[in-house]
Structure formats: structure tokens, C-alpha cells
Amino acid sequence: MTLCWAMPRACAGARLSGLLSVLSQAVGDPSIGQKTSDTASSILSLLDNQTDTPNNAADVGSVRDAHDKISQVYSSANKDSDDFLLDLVKGLVEGGLVPLNLVNLLDGYINIGLDSIFNNSPAPPSKRNIYPKRWSGDAMYSIPEDRLRAAIHIPDSFTYGKNEKKPVILVPGTAIPAGMTYHFSFSQLGEALPEADVFWVNIPRASLNDAQTNAEYVAYAINYISAVSSDSNVAAISWSQGGLDVQWALKYWPSTRDVVEDFIAISRDFHGTDLRQLVCPLLDPLACTPSIWQQGPETEFIHTLRADGGDSAYVPTTTVYSSFDEIVQLMGGPNASAILSDIRDIGVTNNHIQTICPNQPAGGVYLHEGPSTPSRIDIDMVCGQILAPQLQLDDMLGTEGLLLVGLVEVLTYEPKVGQEPSIAGYAS
């Protein structure tokens, strides 16, 4: 395999929007800093050395082998360093944890239909008016309806509420499109829970735009999928920033509360996080993307979201978080960023992995309706598994390899900004 990283424009068929092409352009680019440029060069050199790079997951070893190697990469990286994200990516590649078949998949992620924002989703029934707002108390959408609808990816297997299947919306986090985010995990939820009907919303620009705009896509997708599924209730699963997007949608589009019956927020930064200090030193430290600015712990966005009861659940909610989260911190103790209150007595559980499963991998899967509590699961089984039974080693490595995608999305986002966006009029 030739990675075309020395002169990407000279390579026949090279796509400058591809992951590897973007990394190649970072080599020698003074605008992103010498450390980023040098690390990009090192990563590309490692990937181009086919002798040392595994061809596929089987060459990496067993699930246990991969787990131990990944753990070593994370424990070796300095979490307090500005170069933490770069060091993680380089460590995964150096450790042979990004095999060539995964490189090929990730390199073409931008053209994969799973990530498309140009989906041909059917129009909602005319009698179900969900745009420009469903309820009078909803905020007015600022995005045209055809764009909101086109971002919704509905798999061919989706049944639109038939056979008593529950629509489950997957909402992505920062810097990785939804299709790729969940390709290696919850898109396969139907294998573990046949009554789940999974779909996702591909928020443009990998959720790096204004989070208030990102939340519009989520709010519309929730009401839309209920409307086209015979008014079925919906469950929501979010990752990282996706939890903020869902909570913002629930707060300012109250009609969504009428149809969301379960919300599972994984690794959410509900109290904000030092994401900008972690990611933006890769660039000019005074310039970053809108949603990364907004996720700081003392931003207007976080203060506005948490004000007037927004720090409490609007629907039955389960949060799941880990002290070893590579991005969101703090994630331990009573002030963990993922914790959500329950002043409305809706039903909330905040689940800290290291408390429930001390010194164990906790890779199992447990499924039931309503907020999760450890007493309702087989603790020994769930905590003892490295990987859910429905997933394979390819999925484990793919999930870790997504850091490469996140790195590229942040590097290529334009225009970068020097402060967080203003709060929308409906929320001021």
C-alpha cells in the first residue's frame, strides 16, 4: 500500500480530504506547530512501513493482548501534557494497534455513506407538523428542514415502529461523525437487543460547529423519527458532547420530552471539561472550533444549559462515565462532569465505572428499560468482560483508531474562532 504522503497531489486518485492526505499536508505546515507536524510525519512513516504494521486485527493477537497493549499506551501518555492527544495517536500506531485494513477504512471515512449528511429520508406525514416547531414552546429552528432531515441516517433494516421495535437515536461526540463513532459499537445494538431499531444523526462538521446548532439536528431527529414511526417513543444514546446536545434539545425543544422515554449518556461533559486545553494546542492556542470553546467548564454555553433546572434530567436518564476517560475530566468523585441531578424526580442514575467495577475491564453489556442501577445487572459478568459478546477485536481496535479521525477533523476545521459563539436569542 502506498500512502502518497510525500506528494499527495502527485498520486493518482489521491483525495486531499482523506485522513492520510490531511496528515500528509500537516507535515511541515508551520500553522499547526512543529510538534504536531513532526508527530504527523512520524505517524505516516509508521503506517507506510508495511513490514511492521499488522495487516488485520488477527495479527494484533487476542482481545486480551489488545486490551493490555491499549492500556499500556494510555498509562504511558502524560495526561497533563499539551501533546496528550498526539501522543495517544502515535502510541496506538507504534503499538501496532491500527492494522492496515483499519487504516484503509478510516482513510476513506469521509466518503462512507454511514457518515453522509445528504440522506434521502422520507418526509414526515403531513398531519404531523414538526417544523418550524412542534409545540408552541419549542425554539424555532434556524436550519432549513431539508438539511435537518438529510442528516438523519436510517439503515435499511429500520422498521419505522413496526414489530414493536423501539427507535434508538445515536448522537455523536466531538470531532468524529456519527456513522464512524458507532460503527464499531452501538450500531450493532440490534444483535444484543432485537427490539431496538437503531438510527443516527450525522451532525455536520463532526459536531465541531456551534453546539446550539448541533442540538437543532438532534431535536429535529427525535421528533422526526417518532413521527415516521407511528408516534413511537424514542430512546437516545449519546457520546461525550452528544450528551450536551441532547440535554440542550430537551431543554429548549420541550416537545422532545414527550417522546424520549430513555436517555443513556456515555462520557458526557455536563459540567464542562478542559477540552480546549487538550486539543487546541495542536493549533494556535488562541484559535479553536466553536463547540470545543463551548465545552470549557466556565463557558456561557455550559452556564446557560445548567441554569433554570437544566442541570437536572428532563427524561429518565442513565449516565455512564470513567475516571480514565481520555478527554473528559474530571470524571471521579461528587463533582464528576457527567453527573446529572434529578430535581424533577424523573429517574436518574449516575454510574461511575471504577466504583461499580473496581480494577476490572467492565466491557460487558446490560440492557433493560428505565434508569440503570447496578442491582439490576449481573455485576460479575458485566465487569469481568473486556468486550461485549456481540463485538469482535476489529471493533475494539476500530474504536481506538477513531482518535485518528478526530485529530484530522480538528486540524481541517475552518474557520477557527477565538471565543465561544454567542448564546442564541431563545436561550438568552
Can you identify the CATH class of one domain? Answer: Alpha Beta
Radius of gyration: 21 Å
Q: For the largest beta sheet, what order do the strands appear in spatially?
A: 1-3-2-4-5-6-7
The level of helicity is 25-40%
Protein name: Lipase
Keywords: Signal
What would you say about this model in short?
Keywords: Signal. By secondary structure, the chain is an alpha/beta fold. It has helices at 19-26, 34-48, 63-76, 84-94, 100-107, 145-150, 178-183, 189-192, 211-227, 241-252, 275-279, 290-294, 300-306, 353-356, 379-384, 393-412; strands at 152-153, 166-171, 196-201, 234-239, 260-266, 317-321, 348-352.
Task: Report on this structure.
This protein has a domain at 115-385: Rossmann fold. The protein contains 16 helices and 7 strands. The protein has helices at 19-26, 34-48, 63-76, 84-94, 100-107, 145-150, 178-183, 189-192, 211-227, 241-252, 275-279, 290-294, 300-306, 353-356, 379-384, 393-412, and strands at 152-153, 166-171, 196-201, 234-239, 260-266, 317-321, 348-352. The protein has a 7-stranded mixed beta sheet. Strand 4, helix 10 and strand 5 (260-266) form a beta-alpha-beta unit. The model is unreliable at 1-16 (pLDDT under 50). This is Lipase. Keywords: Signal. Residues 1-28 form the signal peptide.
